[in-house]
Amino acid sequence: MHRKRFNIKQGMKVNIVLKQDQRTGKLTQGIVKNILTNSPTHPHGIKVRLQDGQVGRVQEIL
Question: What's the CA gap between 28 and 43, in Å, rounded?
């Protein structure tokens, strides 16, 4: 579900994994500001920017 771009919208509450947290899998919660992935799907999750400026790949839609 989080691997398909059309499932993710601005303003959604999501859990993302930041680049520096990919090894540990630590999740960061936030609200989607921009969707950065252009392709319709991505195997590691759609890359987004949160409202606080953090960038990561969506792991869960809350």
Answer: 19
Residues pairing with 3 in the sheet: none
2: confidence class by pLDDT, cuts 50, 70, 90: confident
The model's pTM = 0.91
Helix/strand number for the chain, H first, E second = 0, 4
Answer for the pair 42, 54: CB distance below 8 angstroms, yes or no: no
DSSP the chain: -TTBGGG--TT-EEEEEEGGGTTTT-EEEEEEEEE---SSB-TT--EEEETTS-EEEEEEE-
